[in-house]
Write a structure and sequence with these properties.
By secondary structure, this protein is an alpha+beta fold. Helix content is 15%, strand content 10%.
């Protein structure tokens, strides 16, 4: 199950569980669309993979399977 991390690893902007701006790679590294497009060139700085929009978990299921509250911020080149 996806952790639905609450922030961008690059700029630390908030990415709520229902955010259409969240992007993830195959390892669930989480970044905002702006950083993916304008800072990272569409490639994950952790694994080199590409990004996809993060799925939005239905609100009713967030009660049973809440999003992660753990913020992850990396020291990536270009961030």
């Amino acid at each position: 199950m996806l952790a639905l991390r609450p922030n961008c690893e690059c700029c630390d902007s908030d990415l709520p569980a229902d955010s259409a701006e969240a992007r993830i790679c195959t390892f669930e590294c989480t970044f905002c669309a702006d950083c993916v497009d304008n800072r990272l060139g569409g490639a994950c700085p952790n694994c080199g993979g590409n990004f996809s929009p993060r799925p939005i978990r239905p609100a009713a299921l967030l009660l049973k399977y809440p999003a992660s509250a753990e913020r992850v911020v990396g020291k990536h080149a270009g961030c």
